[in-house]
Every structure is written in structure tokens, then in C-alpha cells.
Model the fold of this input.
Amino acid sequence: MTNLDQDWPEPIVRVQSLSESGCPVIPTRYIKPPTDRPTASAAASDAVNIPIIDVHGFCLDQDDALRDTILRQVSDACRNWGFFQITNHGIRAELLDDIRQGWHDFFQLPVEIKQGYANNPRTYEGYGSRLGVQRGAILDWSDYFFLHYLPPHLKDHNKWPAAPPCLRELIEEYGEEVVKLGGRLLKLLSLNLGLQEGYLRNAFGGEDVGACLRVNYYPKCPQPELTLGLSSHSDPGGLTLLLPDDQVAGLQVRNAHKWITVKPAPHAIIVNVGDQVQVLSNAIYRSVEHRVIVNSNKERVSLAFFYNPKSDIPIEPAKELITEDKPALYSPMTFDEYRLFIRMRGPQGKSQVESLKSPR
Done:
């Protein structure tokens, strides 16, 4: 695989600066092909939403019926959607509000302060405005901030924003809570696959998992019908736990060949299956294409927390899920190898993980 010892292939332009310039048209580099643009047909699915699951009862061992109901709901969501929202997840509402507001305030800081955190393809960590290093790529209408949370040796508070003043402490507390939630969710998925409850977590590395945060900022767009905030893709990691902007819809999930606009429940966390869980489950659970639309009236901020396998553990289908009728669909690959494969190409729908299937 090609390494990333290079800079971004073209000069970086901050999408926020384009938005705030007042220009009535977007640069051609952000205009998607007609087949990839948002369509009016997505509005026809407004009555549909991804499943919303109250997971409070999963920890109440005395209520087996409630626990079984939650297991069934999560299983159905993983098999039929790849996405679901969870409520009563144990993370306090004030923390969710505060960290979302803190990141909103960061993106309103003067550009010279944010530029002090500018990233590059070698680390990807920091303030950015593009994915992938393909020269001449069509870009997305978004800026972002990416940081590492686990393993501990990659966590560097000095690379986290120092302003607003409380943000580093909020990130630390939020990360701790979301990592615990990710571990609980892996138990649910393991049980639903007929595995020991610790199987997926152990496959991820046990206590030695990876975790990182990508905060997405989607500025107002003068021509939202021509572009996307984030192109169609499936997430390369294990599980994604998303704190959405619950005031402005934008996430769309592909289901039954239609794009469904997700309507976030108040203080819910949106969970989606990543490519690594698809591999481990031998495609019983499947990562699902999703994208983000933008609008001309409102900006959006969302926090995507990625709960991932340890980077150097080979990931392959669980042997308990391999049968003569359903052999292993994937050869072993470490998450580091897969992540580099993804980063070189940028968002590519489901083609990334599908291209890894073992030849038959």
C-alpha cells in the first residue's frame, strides 16, 4: 500500500470561509455528479425513521423479559438497518449539551486560532477540511476536527483545542462515558450473534481498544442541492456512536435503496455498525451506506465517536459463525491496514469493504 508521506494534494480551503464569504454559488470542486446529489425523493421518506431503542433495561438483570426485548430490538436493527438510536443510555443529558455547544463554539473561533490545529495526511489529527489524498477529488461541504482518545499513548491533550476553556475536560469526560457505552453495546451484539457476551470486545482487543473522535462542522451552503456535507460511505471501524445535532437534520441512511433522513430523538445516541463488525459477524450484521446533506439556512455540528479494534490485531470472521453453507467471507486484515486503504481513497460507498471479500 502507498504510504502517506505527503501533504494534501491541493491547497486547503476552509469550507466555513466559503460559506461566510456570501458567494451565491459553490466552487465546482464541491459539485457532486448528478447521481450522487440529494434528491427530492428523500423527502418522500420523511415518515420513516431508524429504530429508537430504550436500552435502560439491559442492565437490569432482574427483568429478563425486558432484557430479551432489548436484545431482539437491537438484533433486528443490526440486521435490517445497520443503524439505531438509543435512549436512556446512561450518559447525562447536560454533558451531551455541553460538549456539543463547546465544539460549536470552537468552530466560531477566529480562523487563525483554528489553523494552529491544522492537520495533514500523515496524522490526520487536528483541524481539517478534506478526506483522502486523491488529487482532483470532488470535495465535501464540511470542516472537521479529529482526535485520538485511545490507546492512551496516542492521546495528547495538547493537540486538543484549548478554547473554549472547558472543552478539553468535556472531551475527556465524554470519551470515558462513550467508551463504557461501546463496551456494553458489544455485549449486546455478541449475545445476538450467539457468541459469548465478551467475544466481540475480546476480538477488539479487550481493554486495549482504539477510540477516536471526529467532530463534523457543516456550514450553510448556498446550493445544497448540488453537494453533500459527507459523501456516501460505510464506517471503516467497529461501532460508531454519533451525537447528532438534534435541531437540524442532516444524516441520511440508505435502506431498501432509498435515502432515509434520520430524525434524532432528544439526547439519543445514534449507533451504527462499522466494517469491522461486518467482517467479524461474517456479514450477518452489515455496515450501511450513509451520507450527510447540508442546507442553506442552518449550520450543523455532530460528534462521531469511533469505537475500534486495536490497530494491529487481525480481524476475521468468528469461527463460530463459519459453516459449510456460509464459509468465511473475508481474509484477516488488521484495522491499521484497512484504515490506510480507506484513507487513501476517501469515501467510496460500500465498495471499500466489499472489495475485501475473499475470492470464491
About this structure: The chain has a mean pLDDT of 90. The longest strand covers residues 210-218. The two ends are 23 Å apart (CA to CA). The first helix runs from residue 15 to 20.
